Amino acid sequence: xxxxxxxxxxxxxxxxxxxxxxxxxxxxxxxxxxxxxxxxxxxxxxxxxxxxxxxxxxxxxxxxxxxxxxxxxxxxxxxxxxxxxxxxxxxxxxxxxxxxxxxxxxxxxxxxxxxxxxxxxxxxxxxxxxxxxxxxxxxxxxxxxxxxxxxxxxxxxxxxxxxxxxxxxxxxxxxxxxxxxxxxxxxxxxxxxxxxxxxxxxxxxxxxxxxxxxxxxxxxxxxxxxxxxxxxxxxxxxxxxxx
Length: 243
Fold this sequence. Notes:
Layout: H1 2-30, H2 32-35, E1 39-47, E2 54-61, E3 65-70, E4 79-83, E5 86-90, E6 98-100, E7 105-107, E8 110-111, H3 112-117, H4 120-123, E9 124-132, E10 139-146, E11 155-161, E12 167-173, E13 179-188, E14 195-202, E15 208-218, H5 233-239
Antiparallel strand pairs: 1-2, 1-15, 2-3, 3-4, 4-5, 5-6, 7-8, 9-10, 10-11, 11-12, 12-13, 13-14, 14-15
């Protein structure tokens, strides 16, 4: 009897370990932050209801460097620079960069983290997993918790298509447990490298929704000078190519 009991315990532990590995593998395959290449340039149009839309340009120079350039005429020369966990505002009228919090909104509910920089598989651990049916096939829902207590979003409810590992939605919660931001992935590029159309709902501000459409995407290297906090030469050149 003891032998059989021990065998059952070992078998249960092995099955649980295999299930855990499968869940971790699915999370990594479906991690929207890992889909896009390490370096690229993209143009996005952000809109919300009847408000005037705005266009921005994103340059990514590896996992920890992101530059956002505002393209509207009245905002030319204004940038957001993300280096590691630090976010800076660079404007022509300021002599020094201005440090911002990670929750700084670019337009409506859109933050720079929501756009491209969050890596769920690296920055969060799985607390629970649930499988549910849907009209488009089975879904897997991950309940995730941040590995770092200082992270803005302490919890994430992440829903993906089980068969294809394509993301459906991500619900971000604050440390208090309050729901803050809901991201719905509406359309994907033909090669499925990035979400072409995303809807971001601000649950802290009466559910206002921001529509983010990627209008151009170019996998290419980003000049190091774009991410230099003190030297603005490379960034100024973006407005005057060829000079």
